[in-house]
Amino acid sequence: MANINKVEIADDVPEIGKAVLDESSVTMLDVLEEEKELEEEYAAVLGASDEKACTYAQGPVKRQALYSCLTCCPEARNDLTKCAGICLACSYQCHENHELVELYTKRNFRCDCPTERMGSSNRCRLNPSLLQPVAINQNNLYNQNFQGLYCNCHRPYPDPERTSEELMLQCGICEDWFHLHHIDGPANSQRLMEASSEMICSGCMDKHEFLQHYTGLSLKSVNNLNESVADGNVTIAEEVSVCEDNDNKLKSDLDKSISEIMNMGEADEKTDTDNEPLSKKPKLETEEQKSKCTRPIDKGNYEKGPTFWGTDWRNSLCRCPSCMLVYKKEKVEYLLDSEDSAKSYEERGMQKAAAESSYEQGIRALASIDRVQQIDVITEYNRMKDKLKDYLQTFVASKKVVTEDDINRFFSEIRNEKNVEIGVPHFCR
User: Fold this and answer.
1) Residues 230, 338: contact at Cβ < 8 Å?
2) Kind and range of the H or E run holding 383
3) Minimal CB count within 10 Å: which of 257, 302, 374, 387?
4) Nearest CA to 297 among 272, 276, 322?
């Protein structure tokens, strides 16, 4: 029988997982909920990246999870030209127990693990056919994140000197991370961050001046936004309606476009040479329309500082030949790619992990056993948790790195203890 001295059954909670333990313990639902949160975080950041194969052979990957190895590239701490980025698989297979800086994701980056940037001290294990390190990736871009530094304050994350929570967000262009209180944004920056899909920092807004023409479509005030922005799904039409200082020209252009669409309906009775109503034929964009620039002329709404954008803002960028040359010159053609953003990457990762999760499996398994078995499972989990905590504490005291072998040894000992207990009779009184 299970030891139920620390267990009591509550009548006001769902049938599954009714065991409530003391403050030092957790319920099985707590375990499963925590597992679910970890799975969602893993799926968002790593789900769309390959954890088994080095991505070097793929060339520059549109977006992938990356790491910077300071063990293999110690000079990178003081010299940005010495930095190197490695893919998810190489972080597991080639740089285990190394000092790695997690970079979240970067765009158009090719794994540096098989290249000369790593020197001769570390060879890529996932590319055994490469007898010698290959030439460095000339088109890779590196910023201070590869040195473990972030924001305008050039501090590490997490910052060992901070005692409060660090709220950070990533610029959609330079991909650096900024503390919310360091971006010189408006007073409601946190609400804007929660409502937006993407942020572009002040430095990038100044560097890419064409973006200043589109700030009429940015999120400028959350006070008037409806509840649909809570999940960041703000359409361009909604953004236009809520921008408190949206310029008159943009409104005029919108009214004109609607009027033109309405006038097209009057041509329904007209036919072409095939005697088919023109309104039923697909309206192809003419070369003249394609070449016409739709970028707003006035940028009077731009206020220096970071800009917060909704979900569809990239779809509003003009694609006329003149603007396309600007994007190419400033090397930001990726802004026209709907799958480039970090949000889109996260969504793909979530879809990839959409198969049944450990949380769902655990909930179903928990529902299939009776209450006494549930208590047994939870008690055993807490026993294992306490033993693991004590085991890991020895590594903290000795300042040793925990390896995969150490973890395997721990669970082997746990299994051996369990096997000893099996077959030893005990009686309930």
Assistant:
1) no
2) helix 371-398
3) 257
4) 322
For 391-407, what is the mean pLDDT?
79
Q: Which residues of 143-177 are buried (b: 16+ CB within 10 A; e: fewer)?
A: bebbbbbbbeeebebeeeeeeeeeebbbbbbbbbb
Report the candidate in 34, 40, 35, 33 with the shortest Cα–Cα distance to residue 14.
Answer: 33
The β-bridge partners of 178 are 169
Instruction: Report phi then psi at 313, rounded to 5.
Output: -60, -35
Q: Tokens 């009776």 label which residue?
A: 370
Residue 113's nearest CA partner among 98, 97, 96, 91 is: 91
> Tokens 């109503």 correspond to what residue?
277
pLDDT band at 69 (very low <50, low <70, confident <90, very high): very high
CA-closest candidate to residue 155, choices 168, 172, 171, 174: 168
Count CB neighbours of 66 within 10 A.
29
Under the banding of pLDDT at 50, 70 and 90, the label for residue 381 is confident
Q: What tens digit of pLDDT does each residue of 312-328 get? A: 899 999 999 999 999 99
- Render pLDDT for 233-289 as a digit per residue (tens, 0 to 9): 444 444 444 444 444 444 455 455 445 544 554 444 444 445 555 545 555 556 666
Q: Mean pLDDT of all residues in the chain?
A: 76
Please give the Cα distance from 225 to 219 (Å, whole number).
9
Backbone angles phi, psi at 331, to 5 degrees: 55, 50
Per-residue pLDDT at 307: 95
- The DSSP code for 271 is B
Assign residue 370 a region (left: φ > 0; alpha: ψ between -120 and 50; beta: otherwise). Answer: beta
